[in-house]
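Before the break, one more example. Copy the sequence into your notebook; we will annotate it together after we see the structure.
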Amino acid sequence: MKEITKIASELNIAPKHVMPYGKYKAKIHTDAIGEGGKSGKLILVTGMTPTPAGEGKTTTSIGLTQALSKIGFNAVANLREPSLGPIFGIKGGGSGGGKATLKPEDEINIHFTGDAHAIASAHNLLAAITDNYVYQKSSTGFEPYNITWRRVTDMQDRALRNIVTGTGSSSNGPLRETGFDIIAASEIMAIMALSKDLDDLRLRLSRTVVGYSDSGTPITAEDIKATGPLMSILRQAIHPNLVQTFEGQPSFVHTGPFGNIAHGCSSIIADKLALGYSDYVITEAGFGADLGFEKFMHIKTRSSSITPSSVVLVVTLRAIKYHGGIKLDDLEKPNHEAIDKGISNVTHLASVINSFNLPVVIAINKHPSDTIEEVSQVKSILKNAPIVTAVESSVYADGGSGGIELANSVVEASKEISPKCNYMYSLEDSIEDKVSSIAKSVYGASSVNWTRTASRKREQFTKLGWDKMPICMAKTHLSISDKAMRKGAPKDYAFQISDLRASLGAGFIYPTAGSIMTMPGLPKEPRQLDVDSEGNLLGFV
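Here is what the structure looks like once it is written out:
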């Protein structure tokens, strides 16, 4: 690894803006935004619907950055900060794989520069101030049962999903039912990712709703005088973190909201910073294009006014066969019939991306079990898809050299200076119409069913004037639909909305389709990490 000051210097960031955290990572002050003199292009990497086999979206993002560097461009990878909880669970780390990784990956995945801890501290401080405000009876009509703000931790802990606080004596109050979410599900994490600067962060924090009075009036962080204390904790976390790729290209890793609960993207601030110092900025959106890409466009792009120049859709033959009905254990066996069936997932998501007036490059992430005949079959089918280029990528095995064709295709697809984006709904549309538009255009549904609870909240939010915000759908990431078992590209079904929430600080309405887990649990055998006598991490790779 190069020392991080050298990475910053090669990016032409002035030393006064670099705040090193050891030798190999640093924070870059937001004052560096706008001083780079460049006006780069943003490339968004998304994927087909995830499968247990893994698709390699982050690996492709890093490998593409390395490949663009090899063909003569200044490129930066902008990625989300991994959540600590999944490190010990099934998912593992979030820093790529093979020869397309971020370094130092052990530090990036565990503790890093403390941003997640700052966000958790701020979130839980807001919970403590809220509870104390109610306990001290500081406002008439704001009772324990009206508090909606939960607590967070950065670990998968199913025992904390539903708890009772304030037990033991009246001095421990208020007594109430609540629970914990994982930090990536925190609204403050989403707020940080969408904030443009400190002033915007303050505004978003101030309007965050922590509960309601008996009369239905929202109680905000500003109402309980919590905004300033939250800012004091988050003032350093707002600065993006600089690390490097396996081959020494710069990468900003900043914020980490969930893709199936929140909007699943790294920060606007990191994008603004990187675009001023590079030719291309490669960023990604969480989970499949039905979640991450759609939310990136309707929420992040609308907030930042930065439109991607092109979109890379990552696919694998194994995932295509999985969506064609093949079991996990049989995915490495050739199966042309399953490809014909499962590729509907890819073509549907490519058409969704095209509908925003964005060019698509499909990256076929190669696996050793892929056959020449199967790859040819996939490319042949995709030739008929509109505005799509399909190329193979082997960045996991070969690093940047394995992504040269992909890099050239991305450069070609991104030639338009500023594509005019077509959104699926207007912010002036009703909540019901916005949800219907997404459900029909992205999820393939023919109708939307609302539970009584969701309908009542929809009416309440509309009366409060919250209906002009974008939609951030919370649904399964394992299917384009609202049911995890529906593979491929489901069509003509009723999409179910079970609940509705408002994230005023983040600035979106948050419908829930089915039961969404905001606090995962550990698997039967959690990941076994350890250290040697010199403190080096064991068991990570």
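Residues 4-112+243-413 form a domain with the Rossmann fold fold (CATH 3.40.50.300). The chain has a mean pLDDT of 94. Try to locate both features in your own notes.
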